[in-house]
Design brief:
By secondary structure, the chain is of the alpha/beta class. The protein is about 45% helix and about 15% strand. It is built from 8 helices and 5 strands, in the order βαβααβαβααααβ. Strands 2-3-1-4-5 form a 5-stranded parallel beta sheet, with helices on both faces. The longest helix is centred in the middle third of the chain and has 17 residues. The two termini are about 30 Å apart. About 30% of the residues are buried.
Amino acid sequence: MWPNLFIVGAQGGGTGSLHYYLQQHPEIFMSEIKELRYLDLPENEFQKKRNWYIKQFKKKKNERYFGESTPSYFQSEDAAQRIHTLNKDAKIIIVIRHPVHRALSHNYFHIYYTKGKEALTKKINEHVIELKSKNISLENYLYPGYYSKHIRRYWELFGQDNVKIIIF
């Protein structure tokens, strides 16, 4: 069974919390794994993992909606088009927050997972200098925050009636 509900909000926008809350609803089945990251895979991996993806959505009782939450789908043209190809009537939830706060959250996430918990106390300026020295573009932090571009893509594919925007 293909999902018919997608939380595609911006990274650091609250998709994890919303995923958890929707799991509590008796008519909604959310994948046990948050961030399946299937629909934005390169084409060769996308085809190989098809059966694995479908197995993530098993009807239990009275569920009307089967969903997943993957923030990277928000900025991915491939993911948006693949969702539409699989289910043109899918419901899309976009969770956004102030773009600066989202970028800072993204930054802290990067520091936390690459340097450990104690690194969270480092100054952001030191981290930016380090990113530049490693040729990591600050655009990686900014592009997810170009909300109008990403929202427009989903509106054009699914229509405004099938896209719900939630501001964190």
